[in-house]
Amino acid sequence: MPTRALNNPASATAGIPFSPGRTRSKRRPRSRRRTTLTRPAGLALGISVLWFSLLVMIPLALLLISSVEDGWSTFWDTLTNVQTAHAIRLTLVSALAATAVNLVMGLLIAWVLVRDRFPGRWLIELMIDIPFALPSLVAGLVLLSLYGPESPLGINVLGTPASVFLALLFVTLPFVVRTVQPVLGELDRDVERAAHSLGASRATTVRRIILPALTPALAAGATLCFARGVGEFGALVILSGNRPNISEGAPMRIQSYIEVDNTAAAATVAVLLLATALTATLLVEVLTSQERHR
Amino acid sequence: MGIEIHHVRKTFGSFTALEDIRLSVPSGGLTALLGPSGSGKTTLLRILGGQEEPDAGSVYLAGRDVTRLPAQQRNIGFVFQHYAAFTHMTVAKNVAFGLEVRKTPKAQVRRRVQELLELVQLERFGDRLPAQLSGGQRQRMALARALAVDPSVLLLDEPFGALDAKVRKELRDWLRQLHEEVHVTSVFVTHDQEEALEVADTVVVMNQGRIEQVGTPEEIYDHPASDFVFGFIGEVTRFGELRLRPHDVEVTLDPESGSHPGRITRLTRIGFEVRLEVVLDSDPGSLGGAHPPVNVQLSRTESQALDLQQWDAIWVRPRAAAGGREVEVLRVGAGR
Amino acid sequence: MSVTRTALRTVVIAYLFFLVGWPLWMVVQETFLSGENHLVSTLQDPAVRSALRVTLAAAAWAVVLNTVFGITLGILLVRHDFPGKRLLGLFVDLPIAVSPIVVGLALLLAYGPVQGWLGRPLAELGILVVFSFPGIVLAVTFVSLPLVLRAVIPVLREIGIEQEVAARSLGAHAVQILWRITLPSIRGAVTYGIILTLARAVGEFGAVLIISGGLVGQTETATMAVQRFHQGFATGSSYAIGFLLALIGIAALAIVTVLRPKEHTRGN
């Protein structure tokens, strides 16, 4: 049986920048790096990779280069600068706190969405996705209306460290819910019944059966949430008031470095955020592929 | 002191799943709840297991009224069709679960788990995850898990339903043997009459929320209490006014008393068995309408002795000892 | 049991009400119910119209570029094997995880007219990328890059190659297979990805802020106009544009919800 619709051994290896071997076998052994590209497919890949490099890889690489251009000591000095260190710490602490709250609330929301039935449930479904749909700048405005100087609740977070936390809480709301919800929905209810029949209480069943099954999804959701939180910019612009050493987060710090044309310092902080994003992407990949192999 | 079910009723909306069920299952027996889907057999099992509450009536397990008792307090073992394995725990941990929940001392848990894994022949698989086991092994693990807590009753919901034919057969024999060893009162649900007749010592045939018949496999097969049971428990063919098993039709080359001429329109050989479809020359009964072809089941030896071929003209009649039933006139049109 | 259930339900509803529901309602109130109708007056401002035009044009470019890229790479990643495939698949997800401000800075370093590694030679040729419309396109394309691709990949995996093999056995050549079998079967996924791209591109702020230069009436985008009005204490106008952007986002969300492959809901 031919394995690939577009497989054409005669022209298989031509025109691809990095194809080492020649494709003869129709069945591809998994371990060997072989290519099944035809000439047009190879060309398409070449163009795609070129575009991707121009748009993403080269700019990001230049970012790395700029950050260490003036030497490692400059890199280190930037990160230990009082104002910058404070901004980074605020961002990391706020993102961690928002992730922690999301882990709990996200799980509860997912639970209610999967296991509970009541009129108006669709409204909850809708509200979960709104942070995805709103431009983050608008998210800032939205929060400002209830938690700003004119708050009807009398809570004003504008310009306080809490504003960063609140902004992140809003923009990261969907991640844990949306990763946990499908897994929870797919859980075999018989497994819980089995635990009950063996004498396990509801609490024990949740702790020993349900939570362990949800752990990969929770971890993936939390990672996404953390990565998004660390990088959030728009909502902070509106809500944090950008007060140095008080409510200035790392992304804002990058912006102020750019405004004073200190691109090396800006790149240094940016690389830190980039490394966080990269680690998160990798982690999610590992966690979700583990889940797939179950 | 096995299981007593008194006047149990259960409805789901307008659908009546169980209607006034009365049943008494002897202690230590292996009982099959047999019926087509929608007959209420699974609902009844789930009521025994505490996963469903009856609308009316009461349930006694080992002499104790458990009608309103949650599953956790019933001390039952439940085995599910799709194993319901705890996927993130090893096989040994799965088996140990019920004991750990009961705060059994660690050493005792270890001993009991070892014992059970040996019983279900999984002693070498204790450290594996359920995902690394085959379907049959997983179901044996689920059985060990259910037996670990010394349940007063073992309930099995289509335990072989998810397995392929060969493993299914092996596991049936094995369950029969296991039951001989542990002797716990067991009830299993199945829609497969062969499985019920082969494994159980008591068969409860259910249909449309009611119990049609309770009896040993022999009683059920030889003396079906209703038309439904007769039809559900095995193949049925019609001969005039009689409904009978295809293997209760006798084939001869020459006319005998009570026999009727016909022609073989189809002859199929399946291993040791030969199946004939015989179109009769005329209706031996007086029911009217077109008489359907008579299905006949012979052994290969019988067929060869008569040297039967397709299109042969032959004579058929019900065997002398055939346990046939008179056709209820109303049902003829419906056909099977 | 039902006590726990009610408690959980209450906690969840209260949390979402205070975090999302009420604040959102306040914005609607601010825009429509505060006396004058800011939405109409703001939309008459030529600078605002220009900003909306720039935003939509850039988003349209992002949709075109990312759709072509997404479909092409999707087919390559699912239907072919080549060295570096796994790595490419990993990196392609990166753009949505990167902070928009980092995206802006990276693009500035590459395409800036003064210090840009590629930007300076281009500027010498008279092509200005950063601080002009192409820069905005690059920024919004970057941040929404993998959305079509991510939507397409699972569907391509799902449909498998049977239909393609069948078509080929009937004598169709590669281009015919692509146009008549593969593309029609991923149409839904592509639409889904396009709407996500559109919403993301329209709402982008951080990257655009660094790249566009923010010339009012020329390279200012809608989100930047929101910020300008906000800083100038023109709260009404700022909320009006913000509301408009929110509407686009929520409309996209509604369409996506309808298009989303139905999760099979189980009984009981």
Question: N-to-C terminal Cα separation of chain B, in Å?
Answer: 40 Å
Largest sheet of chain B: 6 strands, mixed
Largest sheet of chain C: none
Oligomer: heterotrimer
Strand content of chain C: under 5%
Instruction: Tell me the structural class of chain B.
Output: alpha+beta
- Count of runs of 4 or more consecutive helical residues of chain C: 15
Question: Numbering strands along the chain, what is their spatial order in the largest sheet of chain B?
Answer: 6-7-8-3-9-10
CATH architecture of chain C: Orthogonal Bundle
User: What's the domain count of chain C?
Assistant: 1
Question: Helical amount among residues of chain B, as a percent range?
Answer: 25-40%
In CATH's first tier, which class of the largest domain in chain B applies?
Alpha Beta
- List the helices and strands of chain B in order: EEEHEEEHHHEHEHEEHHEEEEEEHEE
Helix and strand arrangement:
The complex is a heterotrimer of chains A (294), B (336) and C (268).
Chain A: H1 39-69, H2 72-80, H3 82-115, H4 121-133, H5 136-147, H6 161-171, H7 173-186, H8 189-197, H9 202-231, H10 234-239, H11 250-259, H12 263-293
Chain B: E1 3-12, E2 15-25, E3 30-34, H1 41-49, E4 56-61, E5 64-65, E6 76-79, H2 91-101, H3 106-119, H4 135-147, E7 153-157, H5 165-182, E8 185-190, H6 193-199, E9 202-207, E10 210-215, H7 217-222, H8 227-233, E11 237-239, E12 242-244, E13 249-252, E14 260-270, E15 273-280, E16 294-299, H9 300-306, E17 313-318, E18 325-326
Parallel strand pairs in B: 3-8, 3-9, 6-7, 7-8
Antiparallel strand pairs in B: 1-2, 1-4, 4-5, 9-10, 11-12, 12-18, 13-17, 14-15, 14-17, 15-16
Helix pairs in contact in B: 2-3, 2-4, 3-4
Chain C: H1 2-32, H2 38-43, H3 46-79, H4 85-92, H5 94-97, H6 100-111, H7 119-124, H8 133-143, H9 146-159, H10 162-169, H11 174-185, H12 187-203, H13 206-212, H14 222-231, H15 235-259
Main location (chain C): membrane
GO molecular function (chain C): ABC-type sulfate transporter activity
Membrane topology (chain C): Multi-pass membrane protein
